[in-house]
Amino acid sequence: MKRLDFYSTTTSRFYAPAALGIWCANWETGCDALGIPGHFQVLTLEERGVSDAPELPRYHMSWIARADAVAV
Questions:
Q1: What is the pLDDT of residue 70?
Q2: Cβ(41)–Cβ(4) under 8 Å?
Q3: Contact (CB, 8 A) for 71 and 24
Q4: Residue ranges of the domains in the chain?
Q5: Which pLDDT does position 71 carry in this prediction?
Q6: What is the spatial distance between Cα 29 and Cα 11, in angstroms, rounded to a whole number?
Q7: pLDDT for the residue 5
Q8: Euclidean distance between the first and the last CA atom of the chain, given in angstroms as a whole number
Q9: In CA terms, which of 35, 41, 44, 69 is 20 to 30 Å from 28?
Q10: Measured on CA atoms in the order 4, 63, 41, 37, is the torsion positive or negative?
């Protein structure tokens, strides 16, 4: 599975969600423009291969490329 994980390095309840929305929208737009199919998904610790989650950086979600996606 090819994926990109999105994290924030602040505990701000205001900045982090707004920034995350901008990051994800830009990422999805770029992938669409390049013809890279995929989707966003929130993965569990186990799915990410992580044993514990520190407070920072804080994981938010992952972009998972479709298995048949062509690398650019």
A1: 61
A2: no
A3: no
A4: 3-65
A5: 60
A6: 26
A7: 96
A8: 16
A9: 44
A10: negative
pLDDT averaged per 10 residues in sequence order, the chain, 72 residues: 90 91 96 94 95 91 86 58
Tell me the longest C-alpha to C-alpha distance in the chain.
Answer: 37
Q: What is the pTM of this model?
A: 0.83
CB 67 within 8 A of CB 3: no
User: What is residue 1's predicted lDDT score, i.e. its pLDDT?
Assistant: 65
Angstrom distance (rounded) from CA 40 to CA 25: 11
Both tokens assigned to 47: 């799915």
Question: What pLDDT shows up at residue 69?
Answer: 66
- C-alpha 56: how far from chain center: 15
Length of the chain: 72
Peptide bond just before 57 cis, omega within 30 deg = yes
Helices (H), the chain: 15-34, 45-48
